[in-house]
Amino acid sequence: MVTRLAPSVQRAKLVERDSLLRALDGAASARLIKLEAAAGYGKTTLLTQWRDRLLAGGVKAAWLSLDEEDDSAGALVANLGYAFQRAGVTVPAEVTAASAPNEADARHRLQRLLNALADNGQPLALILDEFERLSPPVVQAVIAPLIKWAPDNLVTAIGSRERLSLPVAALRARGLVFELKAADLRFRPDEIGRLFDCRLSRADLSSVEANTEGWPVAVQLLRSWWENNKQQHQALSGLQNATSDIAEYLSEQVLSFVPEELRRCLREVSVLDTLSDGAIEFITGRTGLLAQILAVDILRPFLTGVDQDIGLYRLHPILQAVLAGEFNLLPADRRFALQRSAAQWYARGGQLTRAIRYALDAGDGDLAGVTIENAGGVQIWIRQGMSRTKAVDAYLSEPLLDRFPRLRLLHALVLAKEGRLSVARQNFEKARAATSDFTTLAGGGNLIALRQDSLVVESTLLVNECQPPGDAYLAAFEDTLRGVAGDDHICQGYWRTFLCISRHQRGLFDKASEAAHEAIDHYRQFQLPHGEFFNHLHIGTINFAQGLPAAAEAAYNRARHMAATHFPDDQTKSTLINALQAELAYEQNLILKAHRRSQLAISRTRKSEAWYDIYAAEFITAIMIALEREGFDAAAAVIDTARLEASARQARGLMPLLEATRASCLALSGMVAQAADVLRYSLFDLAELAEWQAERTWREREAIMVAYIRVAARDRSFSIPAERLEQSLRRLWALRHVRSAIRIAAAMAVYYAAHGEVKLAYQHLTAAVRASATTGYVRAFHEEAVLARPLLAEWLTEATPPLEREVKHHAKSLLAALSLVHADDVHRPALTAREADMLRQLNNGQSDKEIARALDLSQNTVKFHLKNLYLKLHAANRLEAVQKGRDLGLIT
Known about the structure:
Blueprint: H1 18-26, E1 32-36, H2 43-56, E2 60-65, H3 73-86, H4 103-120, E3 124-129, H5 136-148, E4 154-160, H6 169-173, E5 177-180, H7 182-185, H8 189-195, H9 202-212, H10 216-227, H11 232-238, H12 242-253, H13 260-269, H14 277-284, H15 289-294, E6 303-307, E7 312-315, H16 317-327, H17 332-348, H18 352-361, H19 365-374, H20 379-384, H21 386-393, H22 398-403, H23 405-417, H24 421-434, H25 447-464, H26 471-481, H27 489-505, H28 509-525, H29 529-545, H30 549-566, H31 571-587, H32 591-605, H33 612-630, H34 632-648, H35 655-668, H36 672-681, H37 686-690, H38 698-714, H39 722-734, H40 738-754, H41 758-775, H42 779-783, H43 785-798, H44 805-821, H45 833-843, H46 848-855, H47 859-873, H48 878-887
Parallel strand pairs: 1-4, 1-5, 2-3, 3-4
Antiparallel strand pairs: 6-7
Helix pairs in contact: 1-2, 3-4, 4-5, 12-16, 14-17, 17-18, 18-19, 21-23, 23-24, 23-25, 24-25, 25-26, 25-27, 26-27, 27-28, 27-29, 28-29, 29-30, 29-31, 30-31, 31-32, 31-33, 32-33, 33-34, 33-35, 34-35, 35-36, 35-38, 36-38, 38-40, 39-40, 40-41, 41-44, 43-44, 45-47, 45-48, 46-47, 47-48
């Protein structure tokens, strides 16, 4: 790494480019300096000279020469940290830790680096050379935010052969971008004269200028040859079309003077991107060859010292291009042998993409495949992030995928992350078939690694397809986890996160929570807030399902704080939180807050990755709010939208939940026959569900059971296995599936009341209300308002033994709320849902500010609706409003 933290040593004679350097000095107050020109225009030389001036002026200037190994967000941020450290800037240790495994963590580390630079307070410069080696995704993930959020004391200078793919229009409009193009970098006649020590005649100077068009490398090459040619004047006057023929000129006028044996060796070692004694010996078997090359005077200007302390050099690009042409004329077997050796050399050094490229250039797909497998296969994604994984995937051909099932799994993973789930699934199944369900590998191989890779990809597919994991899958998952090293914190965190979501969706809440907390511990060991963020969401969802709303809200708020602290530009994370908080607010009957957040989530998850719980939370909330506000047609429209979204994303596991919800909406709307048809056509097996034999999510199980009970409560001819449902409900209470138990118990109470079994109705109503009192979950009663309201009123007067005080108070409040929102008394004012929320908050003694916070509204909006509320109740102030609300039975 240290070899790229300072400019290469320049061996050729240099000209101080005073006018350009003064221009750069004048641009030091800009945010970005861009040098864009093709190879050979002196970008590196000019940036090197400017860096020397900065250092002489006391400015700390960090230098980073980019290469292929920087082409991932995590690696690039770490190397930027190293560059600033080398320049004498204090950098947080987290920034230069092992490469961040994903872009989100890389963005967090970048933010830490920028904070450290701002805290430094002194003028700083960052110089990035050979910028064209970075791919657009990495530029957008790291460099764009670096430029956008750079502190005022930092200027970034970039040298690139290609046009920068950076969004700098806004900075340019503010005068914060300084640019030099090829036309600016051409040598002027006076600079050419100084390069030739002012020994050129006017005619020779004109000839050089005309034939090179000021192209610095051509002028430099010509000057090097001219310096060693005794008939200088004749050489210059005879040179024609130098710009286009410079490569041929170099071959004839430079390489022709190199001894043939050494030129043959040069031809072979040109296959390497960088030259060192170790690399040259590895591919050629010869020692001391680099010293022989450096000893040839005519070659020395064309070798760039990358790091002379460790003997690392790079051939000049034009010389490399000439030698590459000669390399391609070698016998195929020798050429391929050298390329295979180069692939092995770079693989040993961890330079994976280079190693793959060389192996494939040699026509050795097997070597490329083994190299990728040895680097970890699918584990590349876990350890090095998706940018590096996609770079590897770009080299994978269909024949290579056929020969290496683990590579096909890696390809399937990339496809899944790109949202191409059907093709990803096809590739996964091909790998399964080729390995007899991941139990064999033709020609041998690492079966443990194959199994681990298959579980990573299958987990990703299941989550994205919204499919619940089966028992066999969970068992295999847990067995595989035992084979992962305990101190491998990235893998341990990843595996446990997937184990958490798998257990949670199946309703194994305690085990899921345990896995989530273990995952957080591992992520904290490696300082990965991205992974920790998602586990807080999972913990919140578990708490919600267990009837712990305060704990759920706390977990969501921890996640929101982490998102704001570490990922301020990532709106995806706030979208996920909005979906889950909408669901929680809905269950607590905070309809306006639930509606607002669910709509925000739905509009944004179309453009981001999500999973089953997120889709369920946002869509089911939106469906039920639409049903209450506008009726079944509005709810059906949301269901159809959700189905389209699920189909587009191949999230077929969401369909049963949506159809069960459709059946519930039909039943609640009085369209009982249609609801029964939906349940019959969906082929749900209620008996199997009730006995917990089906491998379904807890949300799906709850929705299907509630839908059946609601239809049966309204159609006495529609039979359900009540005793089995009773057993299932007892199990839900015992396992602390509180949210599901409240909903099913409330539905069962209505069912038994409709069938004349009052004792059983009261029994379930007591359990549901008691749990509702401790959780605040009341929506099950609101959804059943038409049948639940008279049942609640009778139960309050007839229940035996007498109800606990808290339960009775909650039941009265619940009955009042049902009467308020679902009033059928013409003497009561018709309040909107928002006004009803306001009245309840006033009754609790909340101030305008507290109401605004509770309902997720502005204080002006609160004042507007309170004014309407006072008008409807004929009240002058909040105290009168509360009293009149009580008098009318709207609140208790």
